[in-house]
Design brief:
By secondary structure, this protein is an alpha/beta fold. It is built from 17 helices and twelve strands. It is globular, with a radius of gyration of 21 Å.
Length: about 425
């Protein structure tokens, strides 16, 4: 086999076999496939596309280019993946809720990407917490607690790491086929039996339109299922932050409030919906409505909180974090309200602009090596449809300096639309699978 022949097959619309995909993925991981060949392959896939069988073959090849975990826990292991957005701290609620009903969740997560935050960065906003653990520690945490949220080992899906970097500089990031293989190769390397996908659409999502989100959801579900992992997707709204906060420590605040004083909210509602769906996929319950009742009980009883405390401690954070969590989390130097420029209703929020406002405050990365300030961001964000008077607060900013605060306020106001009328946006749009 050789790279040029495989690339030509994709270019000409004759898909490579599973064996050829395996060879190419192994070559990406080892370096035998050059950058030029990887870029040509990505562009051929972008322009010609792959069939469902081709996406499955590429996904499995990329998964198998490195280590693939397996579990002997006596019950199915499950996970959730979100395509990213603002205020999306669902993972920090979902994993301990599921563990509290004896559903194991070996969650391998990522860091912030572009204008969206990363689960690992949020968890590491808790002082002392470190998600970079080896496989032995990962397994020990799973045995002890039933859930873990950790970073990917470099030996897991190494071909994806290489191809992802190539896509970023060759204009092939938007390919649905390559996005699908990238997401699922890493998730399936964790040895999952069931996976629920949260595919977001709106101004704060990578897929801004419902049509694009639906295409991605269908691709993800069909490919995961074809690769042997039971899967479904919820298409959800990201025209505004999921929780009323954007920023690492500020989103942990929202999680702790949900765990210690659970009330209905967009964050809690979506966390329950996703966790219930994956329980059904994993064979733990026959209907999401039944599972959701059990999951809500873990919030009201404190069982999910106990699992979260145990996870934080297992990752090096404070023991019994929930007892003094407000004092433990970092606070920004400058905290103040952002005033409404006029009277009316919150009609729109530009999620991308708000997310970049957090990034420019230091709450995200402009380059891979940037250090994150976990204390900065926005909190108390008013939802779309909320009535507001001129001069009343629409959000609260948390910045490291007065100069940064001024820039953050301008960024937020530029992302805000106030009109005479506005309608709240439904959170859950559709289910695929």
């Amino acid at each position: 086999m050789d790279a040029a022949t495989i690339i030509a097959r994709v270019r000409d619309g004759t898909e490579p076999s599973q064996g050829e995909m395996n060879w190419f993925a192994a070559g990406l991981a080892s370096g035998k496939v050059t950058d030029a060949q990887a870029g040509a392959f990505a562009m051929a896939v972008m322009l010609k596309g792959l069939s469902e069988e081709g996406r499955v073959a590429l996904t499995l090849a990329m998964r198998d280019s490195g280590d693939v975990l397996s579990w002997s826990l006596g019950r199915p292991v499950v996970d959730k993946h979100s395509t990213g957005g603002l205020g999306d701290c669902v993972s920090l609620l979902l994993a301990p809720m599921l563990a509290a009903v004896d559903v194991p969740v070996p969650m391998i997560s990522g860091r912030g990407l572009g204008h969206t935050g990363g689960t690992l960065d949020k968890l590491e906003a808790i002082p002392g917490t470190n998600t970079d653990v080896g496989e032995d520690r990962f397994r020990a945490i799973m045995d002890e607690i039933g859930c873990a949220i950790v970073s990917a080992d470099r030996n897991m899906a190494p071909s994806d790491r290489r191809l992802y970097a190539i896509r970023d500089v060759t204009g092939t990031v938007p390919s649905i086929d390559l996005i699908t293989a990238s997401i699922l190769s890493k998730k399936l390397a964790a040895g999952l039996d069931a996976l629920i996908l949260d595919v977001k659409c709106g101004s704060g999502a990578f897929m801004e339109t419902e049509e694009d989100a639906r295409k991605l959801a269908k691709s993800l579900v069909s490919t995961a299922t074809g690769a042997g992992c039971k899967s479904a997707a919820l298409i959800t709204d990201m025209s505004q932050p999921l929780a009323p906060a954007a920023g690492n420590a500020l989103e942990v605040v929202e999680v702790m409030q949900a765990l210690t004083n659970p009330k209905n909210s967009r964050l809690v509602d979506l966390s329950l919906a996703l966790a219930a769906e994956v329980m059904v996929l994993g064979g733990y319950d026959t209907a999401p409505e039944v599972a959701a009742v059990k999951l809500r009980d873990t919030l009201t009883s404190g069982a999910a909180l106990a699992k979260f405390d145990a996870l934080v401690a297992a990752l090096g954070g404070p023991k019994k974090f929930s007892e003094d969590w407000r004092a433990r989390l970092p606070e920004a130097n400058v905290i103040r309200e952002i005033a409404a420029p006029k009277t009316g209703r919150i009609a729109a929020l530009d999620g991308h602009a708000i997310g970049m406002g957090v990034v420019h405050m230091g709450g995200g990365r402009l380059t891979e090596t940037d250090r994150i300030d976990p204390s900065v961001g926005y909190s108390d964000i008013l939802a779309i449809g909320t009535e507001v008077a001129k001069g009343a607060p629409v959000a609260r900013l948390h910045a490291a300096s007065e100069k940064a605060a001024q820039a953050a306020e301008r960024a937020y106001l530029s992302a805000l639309t106030i009109a005479d009328d506005a309608r709240p946006v439904p959170l859950m749009i559709d289910r695929v699978g």
